[in-house]
Write a structure and sequence with these properties.
Shape of chain C: flat
Largest sheet of chain A: none
CATH topology of chain A: Four Helix Bundle (Hemerythrin (Met), subunit A)
Radius of gyration of chain A: 20 Å
Number of helices of chain C: 3
Helix content of chain C: over 70%
Number of strands of chain A: 0
Structural class of chain A: mainly alpha
CATH superfamily of chain A: Cytochrome c oxidase, subunit III, four-helix bundle
Shape of chain A: elongated
CATH architecture of chain A: Up-down Bundle
Distance between the termini of chain A: 54 Å
Number of domains of chain A: 1
Number of domains of chain C: 2
Chains: A mainly alpha (about 200), B mainly alpha (about 525), C mainly alpha (about 90)
Structural class of chain C: mainly alpha
Largest interface: A-C, 49 and 45 residues
Number of strands of chain C: 0
Order of helices and strands of chain C: HHH
Radius of gyration of chain C: 18 Å
CATH class of chain A: Mainly Alpha
Largest sheet of chain C: none
Helix content of chain A: over 70%
Oligomer: heterotrimer
């Protein structure tokens, strides 16, 4: 079990444990925001209620479905590589990337729409809102922004995985990086599963 | 294991040479040393700032600096000491060097990640330094960055916050690496309960680093967002809640105290058996008290906020839990004392530092209970009593444990021995200077001297002057100790592989250890502290 | 050491999991529409937790991992829940 600096591969259980621990830190990173959310929400229940009407639940629901499907394609891609079907694995990851793109485009239009209404932090319109609504939009931007950043990082990670499958560095024997990339992508999905009802559905 | 023969055997220090071989090394021992040198430099800088502050306080009113400079200085002193020195301190230095060896591994689980975290650490440390000097506008919020002031202050707060965020990331990566290492890299036969106690303390610490640091990370990001984007989570004028900031900050920063003190406890737990030549008393209770401290320590953050207007119920709750944490800490103290009892105690410098650790930590612990009580807290919260208390814990505890550790493992790290006489003399200066510096602060704190003030009522002058004299004695001790160590790391007598007759694995390999630690991975057949069975390699 | 005894999830299992997740999403949206008052949030969070558990168990293969890792994941979520509760000891009584 020696994984010293000379060995080429980190063994799978070690690598996966490391990734899980990293995911724990990600959970607590968002956890800090969830604490703020729950405190502010208990303080300004009505304002949150009102502000959430401004969000488009349909866009939110679409993005939820997009991320759930992408989560499945990532999981299937892992199955494919284990079954020595590299082409299928790459194809499924490519679909995942497309779905990530759809998610980001949706997000772009959603944010763009808010900016068009001058609903962004620090704007005069925002400052004129009741306190609870300012908090809601602040949290909305912070949470979805941080989440979008994770979508981008996850996308980059999966692109690297595709390239490594292509070059044969990831294969049915050594696919730790793909497993970890998949775990990261599922985390992105996992956080969205909480964000969606808390931000879009509390009307 | 011939170390004193004509040709110097290859070891981790000399198997490759040149600065580049260090900066690109993934060897855990070299990375540990790089941490040590960086931390030592920052420690000296912050200690000098501390001395300057003490000189300022020689007389009431302005002595050598303006009030604003003083505010900047205690902030810088705090940021450097907390985020760059004591939080990474023992884990990143001695954890890195000795954790893999003590569990019989050739390296940590992710050596490249380990090197990467050092670079993250350096980036954060340099950012921190930059925040002090950029535009001559050093942050003046105190190391706690309390809002709303930190959201409004015009000084370099954003840079300092970024620095703390980056440093936190380095700490997370180290913790992650250690947990995986302990789970996956133990030598054959080394079951969990055959693991020495320093690795155990690092294990408990690593979990706190992993699960508490992200909370402060996001909190600091929120303050940055507050300053740059005017979001206002904590700004009351926008509906935010400043007390919520304090919750989030202390959810991390209280457990961070245990990130500092748990490895310190681990270090002295190694030293007592070795210098008493007796198995550690109560191995299992020590293990579980470490885990209990880590767990309960996670839930006591509110005791920093008794005067911040939190609800009565939560004050009661946090006070109760704070008293609970004292139990496992006290268990450890009894175990250390019982380990020495009846042993053949050899009062070498490492043991001297370890015993003074118990003395200072106990004073710090008891005054901690004073502060944990609701009634006395209200009287003492914003006084120098708090300053004295946490210096007894952090400097008297973690700092003296660091000194103990370096004197304990020095011959292993460098393969050379320091001068005992000078080590004892420097200990004397450090111990006397420390107590003279901080004990008067308890007294004037009770009398009502507020903390973080550059000015004071003349009636406190006796205490302040005594304290400043103590600071000079302490600095003298530091200079003596560092000179002794630096000089003898190159010129000292060649040290044998096992100068203290220790029984843990690091003493069974040559000094300094070879590049890959073990020629052959050892097979462990018994508990770690058995002095009756001389270890066979 | 190579990857060994790693579980291979079949495509049909992955499809099934997705369908269940989508159904749960639909239920969440519908449940919000029929106003349940104070219970709405609780219901949304319970449904979200069920979804998260399913993702963890099947997509993230926790079901096929060792007990230790499962305990760690459970412990981390529990720890977070406790932190929220303790924070609310302050806010609830203030």
């Amino acid at each position: 079990m020696s994984t010293n600096e000379h060995s080429e591969f980190i063994d799978s259980d070690t690598g996966k444990l490391g990734m899980w621990l990293f995911l724990f830190t990600e959970l607590f990173l968002f956890g800090g925001l969830f604490i703020v959310y729950s405190v502010m929400r208990s303080k300004y229940a009505d304002d949150f209620h009102h502000a959430a009407l401004e969000l488009n639940a349909f866009v939110g629901a679409t993005n939820t479905v997009v991320l759930l499907v992408s989560s499945m394609t990532v999981a299937m891609s892992l199955t494919a590589i284990q079954q020595k079907r590299g082409g299928k694995a790459m194809g499924l990851l490519f679909i995942t990337l497309l779905l990530a793109g759809v998610f980001m485009v949706n997000k772009y239009f959603e944010w763009g729409h808010k900016f068009g209404l001058h609903l962004y932090p620090g704007s005069d319109v925002m400052k004129s809102l009741p306190h609870g609504e300012i908090m809601f939009f602040g949290l909305y931007y912070m949470m979805t922004g941080l989440h979008a950043l994770h979508v981008i990082i996850g996308g980059i990670l999966l692109t690297i995985v595709i390239l490594k499958i292509k070059s044969g560095k990831i294969n049915s024997e050594h696919y730790l990086l793909q497993e970890n990339g998949a775990l990261y992508w599922h985390l992105v999905d996992l956080i969205w599963i909480f964000l969606f009802p808390l931000l879009y559905l509390i009307t | 294991m011939t170390n004193s023969s004509t040709s110097v055997p290859l070891n981790y220090l000399n198997h490759k040479t040149g600065l580049w071989s260090w900066l690109t090394s993934t060897d855990h021992k070299r990375i540990g040393l790089m941490y040590m040198y960086t931390i030592a430099i920052f420690f000296c800088v912050a200690a000098i700032l501390g001395l300057l502050m003490r000189i300022e306080k020689l007389t009431p009113g302005q002595t050598i600096m303006t009030a604003q400079t003083y505010n900047g200085m205690f902030t810088i002193h705090g940021i450097i000491m907390i985020f760059i020195v004591v939080i990474p301190g023992l884990a990143a230095v001695f954890g890195n060097i000795f954790l893999p060896i003590m569990i019989g591994a050739k390296d940590v689980a992710f050596p490249k990640l380990n090197l990467f975290s050092w670079y993250v650490f350096i980036t954060g440390a340099l950012l921190g330094l930059y925040s002090q000097f950029a535009n001559g506008n050093s942050p003046d919020t105190g190391w706690t960055f309390y809002v709303p002031y930190s959201a409004a202050a015009s000084s370099n707060v954003v840079i300092a916050l970024t620095a703390a965020f980056v440093l936190g990331f380095a700490s997370i990566l180290t913790g992650l690496n250690f947990i995986v290492t302990i789970h996956r890299m133990r030598a054959p036969g080394m079951t969990w309960f055959r693991m020495p106690l320093f690795p155990w303390s690092l294990y408990a610490t690593a979990w706190i680093q992993l699960l508490a640091t992200p909370i402060v990370g996001i909190t600091l990001l929120m303050v940055i967002a507050e300053r740059t984007l005017h979001i206002g989570f904590f700004d009351p004028s926008l509906g935010g809640d400043p007390v919520l900031y304090q919750h989030l900050f202390w959810i991390y920063s209280h457990p961070a105290v245990y990130v500092m003190i748990l490895p310190a406890m681990g270090v002295v737990t190694e030293i007592f058996p070795t210098f008493s030549q007796k198995p550690v008393f109560g191995y299992v209770p020590i293990v579980f008290s470490s885990l209990a401290i880590a767990l309960v320590g996670y839930f006591v953050w509110g005791h920093h906020m008794f005067t911040s207007g939190i609800s009565y119920e939560s004050r009661w709750f946090f006070s109760f839990l704070t008293f609970l944490v004292a139990i496992p800490s006290a268990i450890k103290v009894f175990n250390w004392l019982s380990t020495m009892y009846g042993g053949s105690v050899d009062l070498k410098p490492p043991l001297l530092f370890a015993i003074s650790f118990i003395f200072l930590f106990t004073i710090g612990g008891f005054t901690g209970l004073t502060l944990g009580s609701l009634a006395t807290n209200i009287q003492l919260h914003n006084t120098d009593f708090v300053v004295a208390h946490f210096h007894y814990i952090i400097f008297g505890g973690m700092g003296f444990a660091f000194f103990a550790a370096i004197h304990y493992w020095f011959p292993k790290i460098y393969g050379r021995m320091y001068n005992f006489k000078w080590a004892n003399i420097s200990w004397g200066f450090l111990f006397v200077g420390f107590n003279l510096l901080y004990f008067p602060l308890f007294v004037i704190g009770i009398q009502g001297m507020p903390r973080r003030y550059f000015d004071y009522d003349p009636k406190f002058q006796t205490g302040e002057v005594l304290s400043t004299i103590g600071a000079f004695i302490l600095i003298t001790g530091l200079i003596l100790m560092i000179s002794n160590l630096v000089y003898h790391s190159r010129r000292g007598a060649i040290a044998p592989a096992n100068p203290w007759h220790g029984v843990t694995l690091e003493w069974q390999i040559p000094s300094p250890p070879p590049h890959e630690n073990f020629d052959e991975i050892p097979v462990i057949t018994h508990e770690p502290y058995r002095f009756d069975h001389p270890h066979t390699n | 050491m190579k990857n060994h005894e790693n579980h291979v999830s079949s495509d049909s299992l992955n499809w099934t999991v997705l369908v269940i997740l989508l159904i749960l999403t639909a239920i969440t949206i519908l449940a919000i529409k029929i106003h349940l008052g104070a219970f709405t949030v609780a219901l949304a969070l319970i449904l979200a937790s069920i979804k998260v558990t399913i993702v963890l168990t099947y997509f993230m293969h926790l079901k096929f991992e060792n007990l230790l890792l499962r305990l760690m994941v459970g412990g981390v979520f529990l720890l977070f829940a406790v932190v929220i509760v303790i924070t609310f000891i302050d806010y609830y009584f203030r």
